[in-house]
Design goal:
This protein has 250 residues and is α/β, with parallel strands linked by helices. It has a single domain (14-144, 180-248), classed as Spore Coat Polysaccharide Biosynthesis Protein SpsA, Chain A, CATH 3.90.550. Helix content is 30%, strand content 20%. It has 7 helices and 12 strands. The protein has helices spanning 43-52, 69-77, 96-105, 126-137, 188-197, 205-211, 231-248, and strands spanning 14-19, 37-38, 41-42, 57-64, 86-91, 113-116, 142-148, 155-156, 168-170, 178-180, 184-187, 217-220. The strands form 3 sheets. Strands 1, 4, 5, 6, 7, 10, 11 and 12 form an 8-stranded mixed sheet that branches. A two-stranded antiparallel ribbon has the order 2-3. The termini are close together. 38% of the residues are buried.
Length: 250
């Protein structure tokens, strides 16, 4: 739930693009991952509300499955969303990268900052969204929220046979590693250039800006901005929502 007393990040003309065209196979068969429900509400609606909770975000573009734009538009129309924010639904492509590009194509003139947010991160707090916007406004071409790693990480060689043992080849220094979340924030023109220049299908937009040779900076992420990927994540997300209802009336 947004706080209407919160000031908008100054000088920011910001739009959010939410690619929601994936099937989410790791959650099992059924509806696309973004349409699975948390507390009776589709994850996509939670994600849209999370972006619109920031007073700096004036437009949210939802990139729907290629054959599901009408369904997603109906879904948004059937849920209460902040009146100060505009919402647009466009059909997506065959890859996340193509879907983000189609979302960028739908942006009107005058947008300075673009957030790209995973629909599968429905619970990101508004303070994290605002921190990303502010860092871009302060001059960073690309910004990612991220958390330090709790676990030791091993670099391995792929197993010789599927399911076989994997030899460890290195142990990266954990203090220098971060687990990246979304929304990732960008100077609009920089992100458009990245999508025009980088042709490999990549897992996040910040790595595309890295390939342009431009700096990407990190701001603190939040433990509640985790990605809902597996059935256990759904249980954790429901628990977070229950705590918010208890503590905040959310």
């Amino acid at each position: 739930m947004s706080d209407d007393s919160r000031p908008a990040p100054s000088g920011a003309r910001t739009a959010a693009v939410i690619p929601a065209a994936g099937r989410g196979v790791r959650l099992g068969p059924g509806a696309p991952k973004a349409l699975r429900t948390l507390n009776g509400t589709p994850m996509l609606i939670h994600a849209v509300r999370a972006m619109a909770a920031s007073r700096g975000v004036r437009l949210v573009v939802v990139v729907a499955p290629p054959d599901g734009a009408a369904e997603v538009k109906t879904l948004l129309d059937s849920h209460a969303l902040p009146e100060r924010t505009d919402f647009v639904v466009v059909p997506g492509g065959d890859s996340r990268q193509e879907s983000v590009r189609l979302g960028l194509d739908a942006l009107p003139p005058g947008i300075d900052i673009v957030l790209v947010h995973d629909a599968a991160r429905p619970l990101v707090p508004v303070d994290t969204v605002d921190a990303v916007i502010e860092a871009v406004r302060d001059g960073a071409p690309a910004v990612v929220p991220a958390l330090p790693l709790a676990d030791t990480v091993k670099q391995v060689e792929p197993a010789a046979v599927p399911g076989g043992p994997e030899p460890v080849v290195a142990t990266p220094e954990r203090a220098r590693l971060r687990a990246v979340q979304t929304p990732q924030g960008f100077d609009h023109a920089t992100l458009v250039r990245a999508h025009e220049t980088v042709t490999d299908n990549v897992t996040d937009d910040a790595s595309m800006v890295e390939q342009l040779g431009l700096p990407v900076v990190v701001v603190p992420g939040h433990e509640e901005a985790f990605k809902v990927t597996r059935p256990l994540d759904l249980v954790l997300a429901e628990a977070v929502l229950a705590r918010r209802r208890l503590n905040d009336g959310f």
